[in-house]
Every structure is written in C-alpha cells, then in structure tokens.
Amino acid sequence: MSETLKNLETLVLACPVRQLRCLVKLDRPLLMQEQAHASLTTSLTGAFKTGLKKTCCERQQRGGCACSVSVNSQLQCSHPESCFAPWLYNPQHGTSLLPSVLLYAPAPPPDSEKLWVTLTLRGEIAHHQQNRVLMALEASGNPGIKYNSVNVGFRLMEVHSGEALNAQVWAQVLRAFPRNSLRIEFLTPFQPSHASASESVNIGTLTRWIVDASYNSARFSLADREVPGDHHPLALAMKETVAQTLQDSVRLLASQVHECQQGERRSKSNGGTYTLLGWEGHLDLSVRDIVLPWIANFALFGGSRHAQGRSRMRLWATID
Description:
The chain is α+β, with helices and mostly antiparallel strands. The protein has helices spanning 3-13, 40-55, 85-89, 123-128, 130-139, 167-176, 203-224, 232-246, 292-301; strands at residues 17-26, 67-69, 75-77, 101-104, 114-122, 145-147, 150-152, 154-161, 181-190, 250-266, 273-287, 313-318.
C-alpha cells in the first residue's frame, strides 16, 4: 500500500461519529397515520434544515442570513469561507456525498407528547459544531414537524451525548473480546447505496456493501478535512484496497435477513416516486482481525446517502 493510501486509511478509520439522544416535548400528540412520500424522520429532517438556515449562518448575527437554497436542494452562502451551515445542511463537495448530520425518530405512542430524536454527527466539522446543531434542532421546533399537512411544534427538553467513536476504536474493542463469530444487526432497515429488488444476501453482496462504505467514507473524510483536489480517484483506490483485504478474510456463516419496503418517496430529480427498499434482520460472520476496522466502518458509514438516519447497525462479538 502506498504512503498516500496509508494516510487516507488512517484518516478514514479515525473519522469521529457521535450520537446525541434528544428528548423533545410536542405541542400535541402526533397523529401517526400513513402518508405517502414521507415519514416522521423525513419530516423531522426537513424541520431541522429550516432550523439550520435560521441559526447557523455566520452572518445571522450581523444583520441577516446570507444562505439560500439552490435549485438542486443545496444550501449556499455568499460568505462560505466562514459559514458551516451549508456543510451541516448538505455537504457541497458532491451531491452523492454522505450527510454529516443524520436524524432518526421512531414513532411515539399515539397519546404521547414526548419524542426521542437521535442525532448522529459525522466528522470533525459536525463534531466541533455540536452546539450549533443543537441550536438548529431547538429552532426547528417552531413551526415544528409538518406531518399529515399539520405543523406540530416542539421544545427541546433533554440532551444525552454519547462518546465520540471511530472505526479504529470500535475494532480494538471487538478484538479485545473472545469470539467465535461477529453479528451485524440492523437496528433499523438497512438501505444499501445501490438496492436491487429481490437481491439475495450472500458473501458477494456483503462484500459490496462493505467496500461501498469504504469509498463513501473516504470521500466524506477527505471533504470533512477540507483536503483539496478531486477525491474520487483516491476514494476509488481505497475501495479497491479494501476489496483485496476482504478476500478470504470474511465468511458468511448465517444470513437471517429479509427485504422490506419502506414506502414510496418522491424523487427531487424528476418529480416521480420510487419505492424505498431495505433489509431487516442480522448477519453472522467469521472474520479475521485485519478486516475488523472495515466491518466497523461499514456499521458507521454503511447505507445510502438517502437513508436519512435509517440504516442503523450494531456489532456483536458472539460466542457459541
């Protein structure tokens, strides 16, 4: 491996990911009726992006926000050199780049006025801008979540911050546990970057998911650290290196997963609709220690950029 790729590997595997569990109080219970083209998480993400525009532009405190949303749904600032809002809103280094802030909210009980929201912060910029992210979430409570054509306001009540984690640290923890196998559990439906209807999950499928995650996380990490130049060639070389590392180092012992449909979504590119596919269940693997960092990287960065907080995973070291 070249020195450049070694440095990139270090950068990718050290990229921090932190989760914040936030309790918000709703103005009234949500009427969780089925609605087309949206979900609670997508509605909450829309409200959050409105909050970002209100609070995160550097010029907001100098007499007005300089940010505006372009036709391709990117946030642009006339003073980008000192504004983090576009990056937190939707990274601008390429439309296929993974988001730096993810939100996820499971449906609350029908009569509950409390909602738990999980915020996932990816990368150094989001990590250091945590206070701004929380300010944006608080600001998004007015007008609130638009669900079933009704705005439901909310107030931020509690924030529980987890430790920052990266793939290298997670791999070290897994190495320290005696294990016969490793289990990847999909806590929420896993949405691959490239989903194929009725695709069977085998070792080839899993390998593709892991190497896709290495490519996506490499591009993200380079952009997050503001490394100049075209990131695609380096990320592609990283992907090819990871694919070689995985050869004869991972065996699929058991696959207890099934495909699920998560409803229809509206396409911003052509105005049509598409069916959101995902996977539920778990996978049991036999892995060599050398690939543990890339398995952990898959758990942190796997899934489509459209997942919007879904594709949450957990790794288990299992003993028969």
